[in-house]
Amino acid sequence: MDILVCVKRVPMVGGKVVVTAEGQDVDTRMSGFTVSPHEECAVEEAVQITERSGGSVTVLTLGPPEAADQLREMLALGAHRGVLLETDGREWGPVATSAAIAWAVGEIGPASFPLMMFGNESADTGGYQVGIRVAHELGRPCVTGIKRLELAGDVLRAGREYRGAQEEFEVALPAVVSVKEGINLPRYPSLPGRLRAKRAEITVLRPQWQADGLRKVGLRVPVSSAQRAQVLGQGKDAVPELVRVLGEIGVLPSPARSRAGAGGDGAAA
Amino acid sequence: MSDLSANAVLCLVERDGDGIAAGSLRALGFARSLADTVGGPLTAVVFGLPSAEPVTGEATVAEVAAAGASELCVVSAEGLTGYAPVAWAKALERLVVTEQAAAVVAGATDHGSEVMAHLGALTGLPVAANCIAASAAGEGSWQLVRQRWAGSVLEDAVLKASCALLTVAADAVPADAVPAAGSDGAGVRPAVRTFVPVLTDDDLRVVATESAEQSAGVSLATARVVVGGGRGVGGPEGFAALEELAGLLGGVVGVSRVVTSQGWRPHRQQVGQTGTKISPELYLACGISGAIQHMAGCMSAKHIVAVNTDPDAPIISRAEYAVIGDLNEVIPALVAAIRTADTDS
Prior knowledge:
The complex is a heterodimer. By secondary structure, chain A is α/β, with parallel strands linked by helices. In chain A, about 30% of the residues lie in helices and about 30% in strands.
């Protein structure tokens, strides 16, 4: 089966996130870029399907020319082809992005991909809607947030968890799914994979931007309650203090709690 | 669909047992404030049970009243026997017209976000996801603050739309700010009515079948104590001490993303933006550096205590207390100390 997986280039963020001076973007001078975690799992799932039963994986992204790097990362994981919907670097909202993806599928061949996969939501904007909007554009059913996927002929079965219960879905192909991390454990790129990715040709298409009524004014890092923790001590020597704190918080088993509380100002209520 | 007199706010309400799910209670509180800025009524929309008797226990009605909704609309239709995202969105699309809605609000839960995305696709309107604040700023114009990076960055935004479609971030409204049913300030009993949408087979192509509840035991999302382990644990064997401590404290083990991507522990134990969001009394984060994606999953913890060898790790500036040291020394010593206290008394 030929599968299309859509990924998004996002800043690689670690312990701290910094906004640029103009307040329009996350500062990436010190970090670099990656794809959202859910999407990496979508690529892995697609690659596993084609390893089992043949076909190909096309990975698509919308972004500036540099987003080709993220396509190559995914090609190194086993995807076969890359498609870049090249933009001029401004931010595309979910409405514009999904219209562009639906348009690109039409350009490549409307019947080319019986299965289209997305990450459930991107790491940065977390909009939870591009896959769903593309499904509507193409008239396909869409199942989101899945952690299990099974294909039997033209039937797709998918499962996810919601508030402690399992939800099961069954739809006919062609279909759209969005995947959550945990559906699989993505592999690391192999050396041959990296070499193949480096040489691979990437198809470039240029979609039309459109406004959608939602305009970013600016970004800011919230005034956090960032504090320095009260250091209870170093290594094992800190344990008595730690026990006292756990007693105060009220999480020690009862006999230990009363003992810890005996010396301090009262264990938990 | 643009109607100059549109001033109602609709809020999608998810049920949990007889009452309302926590995420929807927050969304209702948010929608109430929004309705106040518009000067219009608030209607809670709830989807009915499969049975002929279409929902609404008294608990739901009381909670809706407490949240200040003046109307409770129960959607019920043949074939609508479970969660069906497109059908739910179709019903809301129709209600936007009949109720002259200026805005539709849902909690940014998996169901809330999914239904709103379908509603956005059906109407061609944008959806502003993960809002923490919203107010009307003139006809068809809204000022919003919404979360990016699961709350590590905030976006100020302007939305211009004939109907504002918003999801409310899980931590936008503190749970204790939502009035409990029967509390002072509880509103008058809302008018309850039923709405029967016209649905096609296509609207019911995607329907959830719910299987039996998962295994019992303390779940990560609701545990009172979570003992977290990160890269500093060193390998799969290192978790035995954390498990033992969690057992003593009546809690569970949670882990950081690096632990699951190394295959040391299963993904269902992952705390963070792409894992489980926790809100325990105590989060004891051991050997976890504190990347923003991880903190996004644990910032609702009442108390965070970090055990880390690095006094400059980001977690140290997010925790309330810290022990600077190797968790593989500290945790076994802590277990021993708690056991001793246990037997001494």
